[in-house]
């Protein structure tokens, strides 16, 4: 059964390839969803898939890209909605599906 996480990542996580890192790791784990920068300097991650894969992604979110310095990762677990086809980097205000 699939689950969903909604995560907020803070620290030095913008302009350091963090979104690309997250997209590559999530896709490799077979997850769907998106990652995007927010105006407050945090990064938002919404991912759906198997719980084990989501737990692996959370560990990777704490590590981040080579240039990142992650200070905090806040995660909320929810039921999956099945709304995503793949895992993408979102650039607009709207959630990409």
CATH topology: Alpha-Beta Plaits
| Structure summary, number of beta strands | 5
Taking all Cα atoms into account, the compactness measure Rg is 12 Å
Mean pLDDT: 94
User: Could you say how many structural domains there are in total?
Assistant: 1
Number of helices: 2
- Kindly estimate the percentage of residues that lie in beta strands according to DSSP: 35-45%
Tell me the distance between the termini: 20 Å
Order of helices and strands: EHEEHEE
Broad shape: globular
**Known CATH architecture:** 2-Layer Sandwich
Sheet of most strands: 5 strands, mixed
Query: Which strand order do you get reading across the main beta sheet?
Result: 4-1-3-2-5
Characterization of this structure:
- This protein is an alpha+beta fold and 97 residues long.
- It has one domain (2-84): Alpha-Beta Plaits.
- The chain is built from two helices and five strands.
- The longest helix is centred in the middle third of the chain and has 13 residues, at 51-63.
- It starts with a strand and ends in an 8-residue tail after the last strand.
């Amino acid at each position: 059964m699939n689950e969903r996480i909604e995560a907020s990542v803070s620290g030095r996580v913008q302009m350091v390839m963090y979104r690309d890192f997250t997209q590559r790791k999530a896709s490799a784990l077979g997850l769907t969803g998106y990652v995007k920068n927010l105006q407050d300097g945090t990064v938002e991650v919404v991912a759906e898939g198997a719980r084990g894969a989501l737990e692996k992604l959370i560990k990777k979110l704490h590590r981040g890209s080579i240039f990142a310095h992650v200070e905090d990762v806040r995660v909320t677990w929810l039921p999956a909605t099945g709304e995503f086809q793949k895992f993408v980097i979102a650039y607009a205000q709207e959630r990409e599906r």
